[in-house]
Design brief:
Helix content is about 35%, strand content about 20%. The strands form three sheets. The protein has an eight-stranded mixed β-sheet. It has a two-stranded parallel ribbon with strand order 1-3. A two-stranded antiparallel ribbon has the order 4-5. It comes from Rhodamnia argentea.
């Protein structure tokens, strides 16, 4: 039996589609070889033009397609999700594919309608990143679910959470729903127009009481510096790829806290950073991802 590559390739918030050559290079970096099987835990729907270069390199034999673990079987599953037209159906799809296992995360994502956090006319429930303007996107639903589950133990009632690159406010609102009125969920975004829109989005959502009570707040700022006012944080999420883990964010993480952050340039890993009681940190790689850089507002508006 051909060996199995168990690395995941996922596309996160502020995603830009890689070129076919970069996607093929990623397959090589993950150790793929002709006729190897590639096991994918979560993969959003890349444009169809990306399939051909990968097919030449790592398409499994027909006998492997039936197992449902190949790259192409997984792609086909997500493409069938294009007909999903409700928030509840989106959550059920993520559960059916084994991406979402937490009942709490499912409950929060079902209560908070993603359709209220995307531009009008956007297919809100498709498992894919969506453009929101200013060279930014809202993450694919499977990445939202993944990050929420990685941070779930640090999003208990009364805890503090920080969302860097908060975009339309969706994930920050999810954090607020999880930490509740006694907790604190802070979103930081360096595009003022997106912050203004995100406040309006939250005001239409199930999270509006938390915004009014001050448990949820959205701010214009440089996310690379964090938001010291409400530090230390039990949970930090970063929605763009840093060349290395920012010290300012580590400093604002509470002992026992956890940060989820993509790190790298062309090849990136979603890193899980846990701060130990003595202040030291432990880091492990969760999955391979593709995010745009954690950079300045000017560089983002220029298109990086």
């Amino acid at each position: 039996m051909p060996p199995v590559v168990t690395q995941t390739l996922a596309y996160g918030p502020r995603y830009r589609a890689p070129s076919p050559l970069k996607l093929l290079a990623t397959a090589i970096a993950l150790g793929a070889r002709p006729c190897k099987r590639v096991r994918v835990r979560s993969l959003s729907s890349p444009p169809a033009r990306f399939v051909a270069p990968l097919a030449l390199f790592c398409r499994p034999s027909s006998s492997h397609l039936s197992a449902g673990n190949s790259l192409f079987s997984q792609m086909e599953r997500y493409w069938t999700g294009r007909g999903i037209n409700s928030n509840k159906a989106m959550v059920e799809q993520l559960q059916n594919y084994g991406i979402m296992r937490s009942k709490k995360v499912a409950e929060v994502m079902e209560k908070l309608d993603r359709g209220l956090f995307v531009p009008e006319g956007t297919p809100a429930y498709l498992d894919s990143p969506m453009p929101i303007g200013y060279n930014a996107t809202i993450s694919a639903p499977h990445m939202h679910a993944t990050c929420l589950e990685l941070l779930e133990k640090n999003l208990q009632p009364g805890m503090h959470a920080l969302d860097i690159g908060s975009g339309t406010g969706y994930l920050t609102a999810c954090f607020a729903m999880m930490v509740g009125p006694q907790g604190c969920a802070v979103g930081v975004e360096h595009i003022p127009e997106l912050v203004a829109d995100s406040v309006k989005n939250v005001q239409r959502s199930a999270a509006v009481p938390l915004l009014k009570e001050g448990a949820l707040s959205l701010h214009v700022g440089d996310g690379r510096l964090g938001w010291p006012e409400h530090a230390p944080y039990d949970a930090i999420h970063v929605g763009a790829a840093a060349p290395e883990i920012p010290k300012a964010l580590v400093d604002q993480l509470k002992p026992g806290g956890r940060m989820v952050i993509p790190v790298g340039n062309i090849f990136q890993d979603l890193k899980v950073v846990d701060k130990n009681s003595d202040g030291s940190i432990s880091v492990h790689d969760e999955t391979s991802v593709r995010y745009v850089p954690l950079t300045s507002r000017a560089a983002q508006l220029r298109g990086f």
